[in-house]
Design brief:
5 strands; mainly alpha; 10 helices; two-stranded antiparallel ribbon; about 220 residues
């Protein structure tokens, strides 16, 4: 079957890109010199920019509106570009139960108002909570994203949420190993997927009772 030829990506000269982004050529040149946007494609002495550059400029504008400084945005850009991409984080395929969430940088900033710092971003990338996909960010779990944002709204600093996440990860890995070893030793013919709800029920019940004990102790 014949396929339609794809149109070549739209490209802009510097003045055209600045106009499309609603900034001056001088500002665009400053952003480029600061490394806030990727280098353009060069054809002789002419620099050509594309939709990726326009998306990055719109992201910069949105982050500036949310109170980020240009220095902070430059640090965030460096953190994103040195972070793992979606293919690395989800190299075995997406989680079987967790739903990844695609976000723009400004949407991520809205979830954690004032808390999206280069340090927190690097921690989230290291944990594998976040990955990059072009100009977008992917959070590997909608549940973790929603819970993290709720904790921050309650007044818990995002840095502390991420530190807790790292500690929970260690315990969760140990619990998963415990149940997997038990199944291998005593029910090697069982379907491993049937273990998931059983193991989750045990962990949820024990965590619920542990929280009850802690809350009773705090109340006493």
């Amino acid at each position: 079957m014949p396929t339609e030829a794809q149109e070549p990506p739209h490209e802009y000269r510097m003045a055209e890109l600045a106009e499309a982004a609603g900034i001056t050529v001088r500002t665009l040149r400053f952003y480029r010199e600061r490394g806030l946007i990727p280098p353009p494609r060069r054809e002789g002495r002419i620099a050509w920019y594309d939709e990726r550059h326009l998306a990055r400029l719109r992201t910069i504008a949105a982050l500036l509106e949310r109170g980020h400084t240009l220095t902070g945005i430059a640090d965030l850009t460096t953190a994103f570009e040195s972070g793992r991409d979606v293919g690395e984080v989800l190299e075995l395929g997406p989680p079987t139960e967790e739903e990844p969430v695609r976000l723009t940088p400004e949407e991520l900033a809205d979830h954690f108002a004032g808390e999206v710092t280069p340090e927190n971003l690097a921690a989230a990338l290291d944990l594998g909570y976040l990955a990059t996909d072009g100009e977008d960010i992917v959070h590997v779990s909608r549940r973790l994203l929603d819970v993290s944002a709720a904790l921050v709204r309650e007044g818990v600093p995002l840095a502390e949420v991420l530190r807790a996440g790292a500690r929970v990860r260690e315990h969760a890995d140990a619990l998963a190993a415990l149940f997997a070893e038990m199944l291998t030793a005593h029910a090697p013919e069982a379907d491993p997927q049937r273990l998931r709800p059983l193991a989750k029920s045990v962990v949820e019940a024990e965590l619920s009772m542990a929280l009850d004990r802690r809350l009773r102790g705090a109340g006493g």
